[in-house]
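Q: How would the structure tokens look for this protein?
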Amino acid sequence: MVSPTRFWSELSTRDFALLDSQRAIAVLPVAATEQHGPHLPLSVDTDLANGVVAAALPHIAADLPVLFLPTQAVGLSPEHQAYPGTLTLSSHTVISLWTEIGESVARAGVKKLVLLNAHGGQVGVMDIVARDLRARLGLLVYSVNWFNLPLGPEVEGQFSADEHRFGIHAGQIETAMMLALKPAQVQMAQARNFASASQQRAQQFPILGNGRSAKLGWQMQDYNPAGAVGNAAAATAEQGRAVLDAAGRALAALLAEIDRLPPDTLASRS
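A: Here is the predicted structure in token form.
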């Protein structure tokens, strides 16, 4: 059956009996509601998750049953709790919530799940959920961060190497995407080049600061008290549209690759 919709919650319960359970892929977008500096709204991560999904839809093959679950708009954001407005769940609650959604997906007969993340602070718990669902339920689960999808050299080249590495929160890339998605919610008069303490640390400490060998248990104010890092002032809507289009195409290509995986991708020792 070709699904009448790409959104899980728009199906009727009878529709699930007609799904191709071997091919169906459920996608759970997980995001956050947290401060994004003085110039962006709390909804950034949720808006970006939904924006990437929307950009992917035209590029997903019509016969591939991909179903997007309801976006999880509150996640794990304790690193932003010093800033008013941030909503956060505990790691225990987040793990339980996403796991139980995964269990519901399995009960519906769907065997493949993608956790599509838009918030860097919850990468670790996403991986825990993925391995647990694989171990207990035999689900094929992939953890995907939209910001790690390949955007191509033309799009990636619009941002400096320092911006890619250090502009990780409310910087040029996220601000550009919000200018493309919700320009009325962006206060560019408040945007500036928010320097990150990690950039100076990278120059002074070759091991601690190399971005690979060690990871700091951090709070956002440890990097910049404004709650943002990166050159937000340089962002344009054109850049944002390019990122969204490239990320959407990459997500669609990733889903097509999951569909082509061989049946023995998940092995059994019995």
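The radius of gyration is 19 Å.

The chain has a mean pLDDT of 97.

Upvote if useful.
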